[in-house]
Structures
1.
Amino acid sequence: GGAPVAPGARAEAGGDGAVSKERSDGQPPCSVYAVSDLHTDYPQNMKLLREMPAYPDDAVIAAGDVSHQLSVMKETLQILKNKFKHVFFCPGNHDLWLHKDDGCKDSFEKFAKLQALCDELGVHTKPRSVGGGVVVVPLLAWYEPGFDSDPDVKDDS
């Protein structure tokens, strides 16, 4: 698999997981990084995030499991916003766990609060161009093997 690329463009995935695209407008390519399971509830993970270098021309996708606490989520997203030009977020299961300080009656209310937080901070949760013909499309989709009753597809070639 790979990231979709505009026709005629060349995309490369480096060893660091970033996807870069040569741009026809002469500007440097925007790299798109993806991270997940940051779990910044743990102080050592938050410390690593704070110490991470900035990539002010690039984009990052925070693909879930950041924190179950809204206050920690806000701090984490603010740090990412200070380090990247574009920040995208897709919640994971941990992000929707209820926490006594969140004041949410259920995970649907928690999801609405996360969306509002992202809107407040300028964190993208909907499709958006990052330049050079590259569009990031955050998806809300979780996989639970117990829901999949179809037999596995086997390739015997």
2.
Amino acid sequence: MYQYSLQWFQKLFTIAIDQSPKNDDFAQRLEILKDFFTESLYQNICRGLFEKDKTLFSFALCTRILKGDNKLDDGQLRYLLIGPTSDMVEHGPELPAEWIGKPRWNEILTLATLPAFHGFVESFTSNIS
């Protein structure tokens, strides 16, 4: 199991403060520090990870950054990780084509419930040919 101490993180952050480019503008300095520390954290942790775990760590770090910047919707992330959790085919629109199959159609119907994919079912069914 991977474990890193608070002191390790503090030292890494202190190094980031010392080595990152300086800027007199406070907002820009914070952005520089955030980017520098994130890259330093990624490189230092990946150095100690097994190759098979690096992709998962990269995904976890990326999703946390996106959530912190309010660029990732919880519903979309849940759909990406879990997929559909209910059967929408039973009471939803009919299959538009046989080649789609019920599992895929259920995924499309569930995806269309997310705000970013509003109208996807209509667009999909009108462009099947």
3.
Amino acid sequence: FASETSRPFSRVETRFRTEMQVLYCNGKSAANLKAPGDIFCSGVHHFCRYNRSFSSPSPEFGLHDDPIGCTHPDCCILNDAAVVLHFDCPSLSEWREKFRARAKSKLTDEDKDEMTSFPFKKESVDALCGSDVSAADQEQIYRRWRCLPGRD
């Protein structure tokens, strides 16, 4: 299984879930890089026409300086027709690497809240935080959340 997942998107038989999303249920941001003018990241999930990432908040920028990132309507457009494919850990080895690092880190209250919202993340961290979960059991957790239904 591990060797078959090293290039998961290069094969014809690869299929993607369109139902039951397990991450980013609140959306993922994207930017039109061909739009006129400059565009800058703003926080971890937003973009903005002003480069405010490393600047102290200033009232003159208003919603462009929102603590979560730019929320100004001139910069933020919601488009339900847009689709963004995002692969947080497309292969078993990448999943292990990502969640093993998270399992070793000191989790904040925000991290714990996030794992309450996303059972996939909590189960992944729990599976990789100790040596009591076998590699086969880890694989089953990855497959349950990452692979198409019926392919376990």
